[in-house]
Amino acid sequence: MRIITHTCSDCGTIVAGNVLEANRVMQCPGLDCEAILRFDSLPAESREYLESNHETLTME
Amino acid sequence: MKGVVLAGGTGSRLRPITYTGPKQLVPVANKPVLEYAIEDLKEAGITEIGIVLGNKGREEIQRYFGSGAEFGIDITYIVQGEPLGLAHAVGCTRDFVGDSPFVVYLGDNMMREGIADLVADFDPDKYEAGIGLQQVEEPSRYGIAERRDGEVVGLVEKPDDPPSDLALIGIYVFTPAIFSDIEALEPSWRGELEITEAIQRIIDRGERIQSHVVEGWWKDTGKPEDVVGANRLVLDDIATRVDGTVEEDDSITGRVELGEGSVIEAGAVVRGPVSIGTNTRIGSNAYVGPYTSIGDGSEIDNVHIESSVTVGGNELTADQKIVDSLIGRDAAITPGDGYRPEGSRFVIGENSTLEL
C-alpha cells in the first residue's frame, strides 16, 4: 500500500494523504500554523490513489 | 541518526482516563509516559525527533512538547490521522527520515536502561534492522523472535509453541529500506499495516536483522494496572527532592519528591517512595503510602492512599483506603457524611471500574 504524505511549507508538519483526502481543505495541524493545506495540491496520481483506496485508508 | 516516536494510538485500554487526554500524556511519577521515550532518545544522542500523532489528543501532545526546544530537541510532528497500524505510522515518516538509519520507539513504552546501547550497537553496514528484545515469562502472550547466532531469523505473534522467550518490546532501528517493505504490505485482518510483516519481508529477502536483548525492566503502559506498575518501578529509583513545604520533618520517611507550591501539613504521614506534584495540599489527616504519585493541584486529606497514581486536580478527602488505583484528572472522592439516605453516591463515566 502506498503511503502518501504532504509537508507543510510553512512549519514542516507532515500530514498523511488520507487525512488530506478526508478533509479536502484544512488548516495545517502544526501548532499555531495558519497555512491552509489542500487535497488538490497533491499530484493528480496521488489524489487518484487516495480516492480509489478510501475504504482501505479509513478505520471507521 | 533520527528518532521516531509513535504516539498515535487511541488508548482504548486506558478508558476512561483517555476520554479526556491521550494515553501518552498519562503521568508516571508526575511525568508523561511519552517524555520518558524522548529522554531515552536524547540520552542516546538523538535530538531530531519525529512524533507521529493520531487524531486522539494530538493538540495536547503538541502543546506539551512544543518545538522541543524546552527539552533540548528538535521535533517534527507527523499527523497519521487514522490508526492504520505501526507500519503505516512508520511509513508516514519517510520524508522526515531521509536517507539515514532511524530509531522507532513506541510512545507508551518505558525502559529502565534506555536505548543508548541498542543504538550504539547497530551496524547499518551489516544489518537492515535492529530489534529490541527482552526475556519474558509467558512468551505465548507476546510477539516472539526466533534467533540464530544473535540475529533475528523469524517472528511469530503470540505463539502456542514459542521458538524462544524473547519478546519484541517495540524498539526498532531501521534503514530506509524498510519503506519499500512497508509499501509492499496489504492491510491485515484487522485493517492495519503490521510492522512485524514488514520485518518478516526483510528476513524473506535474505537480509540480516540484529537483535539486542534489553536488560532492566520494560513496561508497556497500555492498561491502568500497567501505569500503576510502571509508577512503582520509576519511584523505586527516585531521590528525595523537596521544593515545597514540609511543616513537620517527622511527617515524611523514605524518598519523597515534593513539587513547588505544595505543602505537607503537620500530622500528615507520607511514606516514600512518593512523588507529589506542584500546588498540592497533603492535609494533616492524610496518609500517603509507598509507590504513590499525586498529581499537580490536588487536595488530599483524611484519606489513606498507597500504590496509586492520581493524574492531577484531584480532591481526595473521603475517609477511605485507596490502593492500586489510577484516578483521572479532576476526579473527586469526597465524604458523603450527613447525607440521607446513607450510602455511596457516584457519578461514574463509561468504562470506569470500582471495586468496593
Explain what the structure shows.
The complex is a heterodimer of chains A (60) and B (356). Chain A has 60 residues and is of the alpha+beta class. Chain A has one domain. Chain A has two helices and four strands, in the order ββαββα. Chain A has helices at residues 17-23, 44-52; strands spanning 5-7, 14-16, 25-27, 36-38. In chain A, strand 3 (25-27) and strand 4 form a beta hairpin. The longest helix of chain A is centred in the last third of the chain and has 9 residues, at 44-52. Chain A is elongated. Chain A starts with a strand and ends in an 8-residue tail after the last helix. With 356 residues, chain B is of the alpha/beta class. Chain B folds into two domains: 2-222, Spore Coat Polysaccharide Biosynthesis Protein SpsA, Chain A (Alpha-Beta Complex); 238-333, Hexapeptide repeat proteins (UDP N-Acetylglucosamine Acyltransferase, domain 1, 3 Solenoid). Helices cover 18% and strands 31% of the residues of chain B. Chain B has eight helices and 30 strands. The termini of chain B are far apart. The model of chain B has no long low-confidence stretch (mean pLDDT 92). At the A-B interface, strand 2 and helix 1 of A face helix 2, strand 5 and helix 4 of B. Strand 2 of chain A pairs parallel with strand 5 of chain B, so a sheet runs across the interface.
